[in-house]
What we know:
The chain is mainly alpha-helical. It has helices at 2-19, 30-60, 62-82, 97-123, 130-155, 160-187, 192-215, 221-242. The chain crosses the membrane at residues 6-24, 36-56, 62-80, 101-124, 130-152, 164-185, 191-212, 224-242. Its main location: membrane.
Amino acid sequence: METALIGSFVSAMATVIGAFPILFVKRLSEKWKDVLVAFTAGIMVSASTFGLMPQAIKESGIIALTLGLITGVLLLDLIEKNIPHIDVENKPGYTNMDSKALLVLIALFIHNIPEGLSTGFSYASEQASLGPTVAIAIGAQNMPEGLILAVFLMNSRTSKLKALGIVTLTGFMEMVSAVIGYFTASYLQNVVGYGLAFAAGAMLFIVYKELIPESHGHGYERPSTYSFIFGLLIMVYITQIFG
């Protein structure tokens, strides 16, 4: 339990760590944004393919993998349709953050819930190395997301400290959902495989629906592609180290 708490905390607070550069920079170039997002996509694909999915089959079988993965995809699709993910750097019209803050927070909270559940389910698995692997993958996604969100908030005339506070709140929601996922899987062992498959489906949906298109929309497809491959290989090495 203590390890799960530490892992979920580190993963969630990666959002805050990613936001720290706003203390020194005010704008993130499109090229670096695309490269960071693609790198994150590679990490998440690797964690899902080589970590979550094989372990889901091992713990609960191929049917559990199929049902859990589809459920993860459908839930993320439902969230996307009803609360679209905010393009935090390019979205026009957000000039008064005070009037929009609640909407932004609610949207990001809901988006972070499946990510936190993924971490919690992974730490409840019989494979001890899976929890840290997924926590690293989610944390890697959170860092550029935290930076981009913080830049958006500053462009919306939000102070640096207030921007960091808002980013911290979104990370805290992810930690809460990670704890919920861990306890649910710990007390209901037969759902662990479904939970891992759900996490894989949620992560793959995020990669294909958001991260890859976002990293290929500004003319930097080639460096983004190399960054994706590099991120995938990095996570393979991390999996081997923890395994």
